[in-house]
Amino acid sequence: MQKVAIIGLGFMGTMHAQIYQQLRHATLVAAVDKHPAKVRRHLAKLGIEAPVFGTFEAMLQATAVDVVDVCLPTDLHATFALKAIAAKKHVFCEKPLALTKEKGRKIAAAAKKAGVFLQVGQCIRFWPEYMAFEAFVKSLKAGKLLSLSMQRRSGLPMHSVDHWILKEARSGGSALDLHIHDTDYVCHLLGKPDAVTSRASRGVSGWDHIFTTYHFKNVAVTAEGGWNYPKKWGFQMAFQAVFERGAVEFNSGASPTLTLTIGDGEKQPLAYVNPGAGESSTSVGNLSSLGGYYNELAAFIACLEKKKAPMIATGDQAAESLAIVLCEIRSAATRRTVKITKS
Question: Alpha-carbon distance 146 to 319, whole Å?
Answer without folding.
Answer: 27
